[in-house]
């Protein structure tokens, strides 16, 4: 019997004003996997992510995380969310930022330093966050999330605008976390990151046009790469209208 999904979304509907943002989307995400949420800007990726972490007002449907309603109190300390803009205090050092988040969840300074080392920021631990590069700020935000050792880690476009070497290092971290049992949901609009995922959710105009493994998507569309697969699905969808 397969394990219960770490994240289960059923018939999720979100409107902004009178405009639908998510149109009755459903999916299940298995534990210990990396799921990529891909789609162009404005497709609803951030709205979907906010619904998963429980910060989005929804019109209909259900979102369940680790067996609890999204955002429920028992999920605090079990689910971490890394926003698109680094959620750190610019006037504090890297070490102080991570130690602050550690203290909120009953972790100590040793655990904070361990999280800093995990993201390759050990040599920058005493630097002010405001003086960091974009990639360093992203890694500091990730350390603030990792210090609680989350069972579910949700990341909203964590690699946007980053140097390819830093992107590679971050994806190595994501794969290592999944290998350790964590469940990751990672949004992106960069198609070359798709092959790093166990499963892909392709979102367009508030609807999933695919929910499958990278290999299965290439096979079902008869394409050599995932960008071509995505384009094939879009053209197929538009042709059906």
From TrEMBL:
| Domain of life of the organism encoding this protein | Bacteria
Entry-linked InterPro entries: AAA+_ATPase (IPR003593), ABC_transporter-like_ATP-bd (IPR003439), P-loop_NTPase (IPR027417)
Q: Which GO terms describe its molecular function?
A: ATP binding; ATP hydrolysis activity
Gene3D superfamilies for the chain: P-loop containing nucleotide triphosphate hydrolases (3.40.50.300)
Nucleotide-binding keyword on record: yes
Instruction: Please report the stretch or stretches of sequence annotated as the ABC transporter domain.
Output: 7-230
Pfam families, alphabetized: ABC_tran
Keyword entries, A-Z: ATP-binding, Nucleotide-binding
Q: What is this protein called?
A: ABC-2 type transport system ATP-binding protein
* Annotated organism of origin: Glycomyces artemisiae
């Amino acid at each position: 019997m397969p394990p219960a999904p770490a994240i289960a979304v059923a018939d999720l509907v979100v409107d902004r004003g009178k405009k639908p943002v998510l149109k009755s989307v459903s999916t299940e995400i298995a534990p210990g996997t990396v799921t990529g949420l891909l789609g162009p800007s404005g497709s609803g990726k951030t709205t979907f992510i906010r619904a998963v972490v429980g910060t989005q007002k929804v019109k209909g449907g259900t979102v369940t995380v680790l067996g609890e309603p999204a955002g429920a109190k028992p999920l605090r300390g079990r689910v971490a969310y890394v926003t698109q803009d680094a959620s750190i205090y610019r006037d504090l050092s890297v070490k102080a930022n991570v130690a602050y988040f550690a203290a909120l969840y009953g972790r100590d300074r040793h655990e904070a330093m361990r999280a800093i080392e995990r993201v390759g920021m050990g040599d920058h631990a005493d630097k002010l966050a405001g003086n960091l590069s974009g990639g360093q700020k992203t890694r500091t935000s990730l350390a603030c999330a990792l210090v609680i050792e989350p069972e579910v880690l949700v990341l909203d476009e964590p690699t946007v605008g980053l140097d390819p070497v830093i992107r590679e290092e971050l994806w190595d971290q994501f794969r290592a976390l999944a290998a350790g049992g964590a469940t990751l949901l990672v949004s992106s609009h960069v198609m070359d990151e798709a092959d790093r995922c166990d499963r892909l959710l392709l979102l367009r105009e508030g609807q999933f046009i695919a929910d499958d493994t990278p290999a299965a998507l290439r096979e079902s569309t008869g394409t050599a790469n995932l960008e071509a697969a995505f384009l094939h699905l879009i053209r197929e969808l538009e042709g059906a209208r």
